From TrEMBL:
This is Thioredoxin family protein. Residues 4-87 form the Thioredoxin domain. InterPro entries: Thioredoxin-like_sf, Thioredoxin_domain. It comes from the Bacteria. CDD domains: TRX_family (cd02947). The lineage of its organism: Bacteria, Bacillati, Bacillota, Bacilli, Bacillales. It holds the Pfam family Thioredoxin.
Length: 117
């Protein structure tokens, strides 16, 4: 998972690309566990770009997109945050919440198909 700077995230959002952003702090123990879950998701969704951002280095993003807690996943499509996920119960629960926003079926995921619109 590639780390993005404030400027890189701004460019990514303006590009209208779909991606999933993992927000964390290196001082957060829960974030470390959540990152392992996100790494599993990254393997399960090979056609969806997953990136990460350290909230300590992203003050403008945190303010603009009203990040209220970490760890967090932001599903970004067409230059907008379309879903915010703050609860990291399990990989299957994250998959259920992501599938509805990425419009993927289990068959799509297995075949590595990307976001459908």
């Amino acid at each position: 998972m590639e780390e993005k700077s404030e400027e890189e995230l701004k460019e990514e959002m303006s590009s209208q690309n779909s991606f999933v952003l993992f927000l964390y702090s290196p001082f957060c123990g829960t974030c470390q566990l959540a990152e392992r879950m996100v790494e599993v998701l990254e393997k399960l969704y090979p056609s969806i770009p997953f990136v990460k951002g350290n909230v300590n280095l992203l003050p403008a993003y945190v303010h603009t997109y009203q990040v209220t807690s970490i760890p967090a996943l932001h599903v970004c499509q067409d230059g907008k945050v379309v879903k915010k996920i703050y609860a990291f119960h399990s990989v299957p629960s994250l998959m259920m919440r992501l599938d509805s926003f990425l419009h993927l079926s289990e068959a799509d995921r297995k075949e590595g198909n990307g976001c459908k619109r």
